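Session log. Operator J.P. requested a structure for one protein chain; no other inputs attached. Running the standard single-chain path with token output.
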Amino acid sequence: MTGERGGAGIGPDEVAVRALRDAYHLVRAGLFRFDPEDIHERVLSVLGALPPLALALGTDALGGARRPVHVAGIDFPGVVGVAAGLDKDGRAARAWPALGFGFVELGTVTAHAQPGNPRPRLFRLRGSSALINRMGFNNAGAPALADRLADLGVWRGNGALGCPVGVSLGKTKTTPLEAAVPDYLASLEALAPHADYVAVNVSSPNTPGLRALQDADALDGLVRALVARADALTPGHPVPVFVKVAPDLDDAALDRLVGTCEDAGVAGFIATNTTLSREGLASADQVLASQDGGLSGAPLRARARAVVGRLAGATHLPVMGVGGIMTPADALALLDAGASLVQVFTGFVYHGPALVLGINHAAARRGTERA
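Structure written below.
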């Protein structure tokens, strides 16, 4: 048994994950010497320029054993996806499946292009395995993303990238809250032909007033309009609409949100966005605690699990879990809490493709054990 599993009780899957993790950590030492936003942009450029042969080799190496799932009428080849924010404008869209991801959520995009908040606006908290960002939905606009997806041959349901494509929609900063509905609708209309699902981002802390759209009356009007327009665009087969929630809502607010969204006909939830809390930071990172913006990474782990569990217990609709996933065990914990799918961002920054590979292997083993 020991010999078959690679020695000392460690199987070949774990050996591969550890080797990939160690290799990435060597690379990370160099990457982390650069400004976090600058290196993020460079990495996206490199991934976007990878030739087809490199993508094929990556798919062969990292796209192995996965656990397929069917959620909201969509077939996902694996349970772990790219969280919104990692690739707002789809610049590396072709590369994500080659890194083992079972789906990708592009965005958050807005109806109009916007530069986002002034720099610096992205901070590493290495002692806490965390990030703080106040990016402010910097993006080239929904029409530009639609054009890029069209150029890549990505149309809803055609699987051109090898995995489903979701798009996160936000409000243009200069659009007043009372005009939020037509602003979101403009983005939906541009991207519905290309998106397997859309996510309604009303929970980012980095656009002034945006979280007010989580209030019952405002949220009801917004999601009803989006669900109705999605149905009108593709009658009988509407693009599924998910709502992304903040981790800072209390249980009563979460319950109200679930009721509002269910009544409006949404397809599911994404939990959670970044948090305004600074609990759980290492002492070495306290100097950055006063920076404005949303915190992501390991300090969000417990709260993300709690919110996923609360939502899963309150609704029959599927939940995508995101927040604090730094290890495969963290992903399994969110799945055990009731998530149907998981997404990663900060964990990928810190641990690279090894995290994705490890989650895929762990989820596949869990599925086999329970079959």
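Operator note: DSSP finds eleven helices and 13 strands in the chain.
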